[in-house]
Give the backbone structure.
Amino acid sequence: MTPSPIVWLIMGVAGSGKTVVGRRLAQWLECDFLEGDRRHSPANIAKMQAQIPLDEGDRRQWLLDMQDDIQRAIALRRETVITCSALKRAYRTQLAAPGGVQLVWLDVPPAELERRLSNRLNHYMKLEMLKSQLAAFESVDAEEAVIRIDGSLPPDAIVADWLRQATQQFPALNLPWWQRLHPESSKRDP
């Protein structure tokens, strides 16, 4: 049986529902959750609040911090759902490099993203930044091992679609968390 990933990286542009879906997946998996936006530096957040897109230099440390979080989760065998825009293929490759990482892409049409961001309150990422995110986003291609989910569905339907696709790839997801992460423990259970 293929072992299930330790880290589920929920990716997509602003407004795709990463946080809502990520929290629900973490709840279903009974695992840790990490909001990637919280890893941005105050300078990055101030820049985005001012509607100034981040450049490669701005993202460098953020990506390294995300990579550290992923490596820590894998080293500790702490199943974790992490949200991250992962706009470029190089970022996705860097974050998935340690192995044990499964990318999940919330694919949402631009019109729906605009609707969501125009209704968003209390977040620094506003509608004005969507164009820069869409311009920076490099489409996921067939060579990338990504689970694609229709992110325009309601959150519960997204989780159901994720579960259907993920359990086809990783049947161990049907096991309780302690058996997914520590298969040897199932041998000792009566």
Summary: Residues 35 and 83 are 5 Å apart (CA to CA).
